[in-house]
Each structure stands twice: as C-alpha cells, then as structure tokens.
Amino acid sequence: MAREETPEAWEELWDRLCLHGETVSPASFTALPRLASLAxxxxxxxxxxxxxxxxxxxxxxxxxLLAGCPDAIAQLRELVDRQLRTxxxxxxxxxxxxxxxxxxxxxxxxxGDFTDDFYTVSCPRCGAEVTIAIGDYGNYSAxxxxxxxxxERRALLPTPAEELRDLGHWMHATAVRDxxxxxxxxIRHVFGRAECPTCASVFSIADAYTSANLxxxxxxx
Length: 221
What we know:
By secondary structure, the protein is of the alpha+beta class. The chain has helices spanning 7-17, 26-30, 32-38, 43-54, 62-66, 70-84, 91-101, 105-110, 166-177, 181-190, 205-213, and strands spanning 116-122, 129-135, 140-145, 149-155, 193-195, 202-204.
C-alpha cells in the first residue's frame, strides 16, 4: 500500500488489524507506527490507525501495547486535530478518534451527535438507575419505565462554558473552535449536573458515567 493503494488491500488490512472496525489484536498495535508514517498522505491509513486506538479497551493488554508507540500516537493526534479544523462531514466520528488518542476511550465510545443521546448512570447517593437524555427530545434525567417511557423527568443543569474544567473544558473548547455548536452545547450538558428523580440528590453526570465505565480514566493533555 505504500507503493500503491487499492481498495482490496485496505479491505484485507482492516480485516486483519481491526475487524468490523473494533476488534483488535497485538498485531494491530504493532502496525501503528507504520500506519502513522503513511497517514499524512493517506486518509485510509489515518482512519484505520484511529480505529485501532479506539479499540484499545477491547483488548486486555491494549493500553500496555499502545504505550509502546508514543511517537506514533503523538503524530496521529496532530493529524486528527488538523483534520477536525477542516470541519469534515464526519466530524463527530473524527472527534471520537481524537478522544481515543487522548486516552479517553469511554467518551470516545459514548459520545454521539447529541441529536438523540441517552446515558444510563447510577445515582451516587441512592443507587437508582437514572436515564440521562441529551438531544432533540429534551435534556433531562428520568426513570425509564418500559411501559410508560421516561417518567419523573428533571431538567438537566448544564455547566456554563466558563466554569468547565479539565477534560470538559478541552472538549468544549475544541468543539467551539471548529464551530460545532450542537456538540459544544451537548458537552456542557454531559459535564453538567442531574437531579435523581428517586432521591432528589444532584450529581455530576460525567463523574457518574466515568465511574461506571472507566474508573481510572486518564485526564486529557
């Protein structure tokens, strides 16, 4: 492929290194430096390399294997960030790639386009299962009833942009920089607070989601 790219060769490489776009193996991470070297001139190489990084948590040794190629990760992160600045049609997918390259695998997998996003979290106080909705159908916390739908709705409390910190600030600033206003607004909500419909306690949505999905999630750089 370094000599001549063909669709058949890329299809075979995807099957070998990132089957169905998510299943990775040690060979996947071994290939990252070579893919990174091709990525400046090959959109396919950049997409495949990013997909491998997004699959890190699917392999028990993924993080250790990824740690073995820091230069490739740094190069891929720069290329993906540069790509985002062009406002590509698949911005949200590429934004997820950047999150994975920053080590935020759970958010990479979780964030949608905020047209119809739902997250399930446990209330830190009473343990109730709370549905968080962010999108065109409303921004609320609720108890999900399989017959009645989302009941006992409570409006979410988004964090003002100037009060966002750390990961939330970085994610929001990136979306604002690229004029992705729906994404930026969704990030304000997901890094905001929710009221538990069962016990009325107010808690951080992002903290509750992170605790359930990746307790030791590293911070973004």
